[in-house]
Amino acid sequence: MAVADKGLSGASAGSSILNDERYRSVFYQIVVFGLIAWTGYYLIANTANNLQSRGMSVGLDFLSGEAGFSIAWSLLEFKPNDSYFWVYLIGITNTLIVSFIAIILTTILGFFVGIMRLSSNWLVSNLAGWYVEILRNTPLLLQIIFWYLGVFSLLPRPKQSLDFGGAELFFLNNRGFYMPKAVPGELFWITVIAILVAIAGAIYLTHRSNRIQEATGEYHSAFWPSLALLIGLPLAVFFASGSPLGFEIPALKGFNFRGGGRIPPAMCALLIALVIYHSSYAGEMVRAGIMSVSHGQTEASYSLGLKPSWTMRLVIIPQAMRAIIPPMISLWMNVVKNSSLAIAIGYPDIVSVFMQTSLNQSGHAIEIVAMVMLFYMTVSLSISAALNVYNKHVQLKER
What we know:
The chain has helices spanning about 1-20, 20-55, 85-115, 120-135, 140-150, 190-215, 225-240, 265-290, 295-305, 310-340, 350-360, 365-395; strands at about 160-165, 170-175, 175-180, 180-185, 245-250, 250-255, 255-260, 260-265. With about 400 residues, it is of the alpha+beta class.
């Protein structure tokens, strides 16, 4: 009888564990994780065995091999005898450069478009509406090809270049945009440190102004002190250190320009298309975010004597950011991922130079595709993490 009671108590204990939601959820998570791990191991092992049976090498040893081809444009110096790993880094650099600039310009232009959509002026509002409806309903790839073939390829030749400003410093032709190239001297690093210090000081002044406003209700603008710090301190250090910065001016020699900096037509077309296309989406996000703020906030600010510009900047936009940031996360990630369409016009991004040219030469398709996927995943997760931190900061907090 005691044995039976012991068996019943053990069975009841087991059933209580199975019925406990905490233990059940942990058990299911372990099972799911084990199935995923086993599936991943099976796929990797099976792929490796199949490749080895066909005499194909597996691994990342090819990254140290000589690339043997040239890259049309890069900020980093590249020679054909450099390694595939250096090609990978150049592809990452070119992708991040165009994506970073596109994200900044997309955000700025998107805010302007979104605010214009809500303008009381009929012409301004409708122009912004047509901008949004036309551009976001046209495929991005077609816009990239249009700017490349329909605009930049039709520009004049170098001898008939368009001179911006008339100072013979900035030129635009069918081979790209030419501009002076900065050549830093030995002591220019001191100026760089001064710029970083000025940025930190401007951030401190802004936070200090916000704390004073929250504590006393008085608004102390930090714009002009911050602007004076950002401009004055680096300039003072720059001249005090002997102006350690020169410029290499582009000059027409023969059939093309020599010296200076150059932005290729493919990058110009890609950048413009990315900004215009994604700013149409950003404009709708901004418009929706502003409309989510109660109109009573506007009326209350007007009753306190705030000007419309101050109302928008200090009252409406800060509250609208709670609704703008979540979809803006996806938009920024899409800017980076859609930059891969540059392969259609020959811009040397990571897809073009690494997943196409390097893959065709080395034959390591799985490793190269995995590395490119890892890059895009890392960038997307970094953007998501950064904006989620900011989104958490601007959300309402219960007291």
